[in-house]
Amino acid sequence: MKKLSIIICLYNTEKEYFDKCLSSIFSSTIENFEVLIIDDGSDIDYSDIISEYDVRYVKTENRGVAAARLYGILISDGEYVCFVDSDDTVSFNYHMPMVKKAQESGADIVINDWAFHTERARYFCKRDTTISDTFTYEGDEILRQYVKNEGREHSYFTLWNKVFKRELLLKVKEQIDKLDLPERRIDFAEDTLINFFAYANAKKITNMHSGYYFYRIHTSQSVNVTSKEKLKNQIYAMSYVLCAMSENVGGNRYADEIKEHIKKWGALMSRTHYSYALNKKYTDLYPYIMERYGVAKLEKSTMKDGKAYSDNEVLPSNFTDIDNSLREAYFTKWSFTADYDRSDKYVSSTIDYINNNTGKTVTYSKTAAFKIPRGIRSFKNKFLHNYYIYTLGMLLFKKGSKTREFLKKKI
How many CB atoms lie within 10 A of CB 204? Predict the structure, then answer.
């Protein structure tokens, strides 16, 4: 049995992104692992990329990402399981510490840090509590914490920033298989549903801060609303998932509170999807949004809805060079002295991990021959990701306005 199965669900992802995804995984510190690729009926031939890596590749008919994820769980061979989206990447020491933490703590789920990756910058959200806090939850408290922020922090309900015990996910698959699944495919919010049952069945969860999962933002990603029908499908899927969650709270001692949080989560999603429809002028979807989310009137998204994403810290533009140097430090056989920026949290925590887990010691000296690059952050990126600039922009330029859309394209 492998220690970790990394499941990648693939469907018509740009080949450049997919190659970078695999490269980041295979240049990392993971040991005794498998990469399991579930190709959900792609039209693109990936054989040239796949041949470069040691992976298990399974191509199925196009059944949607929910079916692909569940099938991946079923045929995986790891004691632990994680998911990586086919257009994303990870820092070099991301998954191994999570597996180690799961083994040492006995946790069923371990959550780690993540960052957005756009064409212009990589940045993380300082108000995201999985990043700003360190926590451990047990028993009924786990599901309570899952719904407590009512959908405002997607780090709780995404699959890609977590490591799970496989036996937990097999139980989750059994429960989802028993649901009265609709004929219409669930190609949105399937991670919310899988995580709900995972949190409901977990006995212990914890989090850590060992690196970054880079969630890539680009125009062709599957969550983008590109048509009225796609938005309608998202509304259907999200409302179905929230209903299924509310009906399967079970005997949790916080059941009433959890159901109330789920109801407010639905209200948030009604505002989100109404704002999309308003922006695109899909006026005939308004009654559908009200019906699916059970709201009496439609309201636009508020600044509070996006609070977790309002205060960001930009990572260095030369993060790849820094990560490559840390990788070299990790795989160097002997103890040595290095010159590095001790005030950089990512660098210092990685050096600490090397010192505590590799049997060698990396010490600091300004005159050392081995140098880990200092972080470079442009004034423009720091300015644009500043909390006060974000708040001012939200106040001055309303969501969906022509000015706001123009500024988004330009900056």
Answer: 16
Answer yes or no: is pLDDT of 321 > 90.
yes
Check: CB of residue 34 under 8 Å from CB of residue 56.
yes
Which pLDDT tens digit goes with each residue over 161-198? 999 999 999 999 999 999 877 666 778 899 999 999 99
Do 96 and 33 touch, CB atoms closer than 8 A?
no
E-strand ranges in 179-309 read 204-207, 213-216
- For residue 120, tell me if it sits in a domain: yes
Q: Are residues 202 and 324 in the same domain?
A: no
Residues in the chain, overall count: 411
**Alpha-carbon separation of residue 332 from 24, 177, 359, 372 (angstroms):** 19, 47, 11, 14
Which domain CATH number covers 160?
3.90.550.10
Residue-range definition of the domain harbouring residue 344: 316-376
Q: Give the containing element (helix H, strand E) for 322.
A: helix 319-331
72 and 183 belong to one structural domain: yes
Phi then psi dihedrals of residue 2, to 5 deg = -75, 155
